[in-house]
Amino acid sequence: MMKQIFGRRKGSKTANKELIGGRRHAVLNQQSSSGVADLSGQQPILSGTGHTYGNGNGIGFPESRLSDAFYSSNFRPLPSIKDMPNTEKQNLFIVKLNMCCTLFDFTDPTRNIKEKKIKVETLLDILDYVKTANAKFPEIVVERITKMISVNLFRTLVIPPREKKVLQAFDLEDDEPLADPAWPHLHLVYELLLNFVQSPETDSKLAKRYVDHSFILRLLELFDSEDPRERDYLKQVLHRIYGKFMVYRPFIRKSINNVFYQFIYETEKHNGIAELLEILGSIINGFALPLKEEHKLSLVRTLIPLHKARCISMYHRQLSYCITQFVEKDAKLTDTIIRGIIKYWPVTNSPKEVLFLTELEDILEATQPSEFQKCIVPVFCQVARCFNSSHFQVAERALFLWNNDRVESLISQNSKTILSIILPALDKNINGHWNPAVQSLSLNVQKLFSEREPEAFAECVLKYEEDKVRKEELKLKQEVAWKRLDEIASAKATSGEAVLVSPSLPRQPSV
């Protein structure tokens, strides 16, 4: 076996170790001199970024793109790790990790076909070794694994212009996602990272020297990838890192919030908001009670302002889940959340209004009766405005709140207060909305109130009629006053007298 592999005579066990060790260093030195990342213990800087990783003892990674001539002469298949003696597996594993630090140009599918295939086979062998490991990974293995992963994954994302797309944010879901041409190799590297992080043989105290703050920040940068497959792997990896490395939990939460800040207040362009919110939803689910002030500030400063983005449809489901988790964790936050959402309620964006109404229903469903009473007025003033929307889907969605048993129970406990707010909107729909379905639903809601509490309903109707009469009288008085002013102004204009114009009124241009 050794003779076939290395072309040497079979020697003693010690000689074999020296032989493979010498072969390993020869391969490393040969690749280093040709442009592959150096493993000699130097600490170069990551090309083009100025970043290093580790706690000062780590290694940076220059980009390893080599010529076709080097590939054809030096990039050759190595034997499978599982076929090697146990004493030699680790050495060959490290050599293979170094081989996989070589990067290929995937924009041209006709180049380096053989070498790309060899790299895929090598990655599969490395992945199998990590999956089947039955002993703790030593530091040199942890270092080489994180090095190879970093070289392959941490790259500059090529993001096509999206300025025009943002204006049509609700059409983005129909766009074809951009697939990374390097995915045949990238997905194996992600699979390796995922298995390495969650492996019981990975010592978190040792691994955190290399999976450090810089490593996590570079992972977060990749969440802006156009490829949904990559974002899905990143979501799993970051979640596993959060679970395994407890010391990094505050840093990860803070870093995710920083991504949200940049999205909300600067760019409004990011592909991975939904995945980050999915991670955050799982984190919120595990919060201990009572909630820390840090978590409440995160809710007010990031999650609620995320409602203002035009492309909210891309991540609304995950955002709504996070918001509802906070309501379930601490009922006293309900009023803050509802008032915050109403602050960002859309005015001219009907599809977004439908999303907000759906989220409002989820929040009300998780609301305690005592907290519901604090926000009745702002909630149903907004719901009443939605009743009268000219977009029938918005009006229907608002009227469908009465189909939810939990919400309807809360309404019935405060029916008199709510009816006095929504009765004018219901009457306007019944007598004038263009959509028959909206008219019918409005009539059903009105009938529900009249049958449940006829006395309260009659009292509200009487008050509403009186208010209508007063408004008509006031409107008539205003019209008479304006007519009188118009007559006075016309009389003075014909007599040549100066007409005093109030500074608050716009001046009319002279004819």
Automatic annotation (TrEMBL):
The keyword Cytoplasm applies. Keywords: Cytoplasm. GO terms for cellular component: cytoplasm; protein phosphatase type 2A complex. GO terms for molecular function: protein phosphatase regulator activity. The keyword Cytoplasm applies. It is found in: Cytoplasm. SUPFAM superfamilies: ARM repeat. Signal peptide: none annotated. InterPro entries: ARM-like (IPR011989), ARM-type_fold (IPR016024), PP2A_B56 (IPR002554). The B regulatory subunit might modulate substrate selectivity and catalytic activity, and also might direct the localization of the catalytic enzyme to a particular subcellular compartment. Belongs to the phosphatase 2A regulatory subunit B56 family. This is Serine/threonine protein phosphatase 2A regulatory subunit. It comes from Urochloa decumbens.
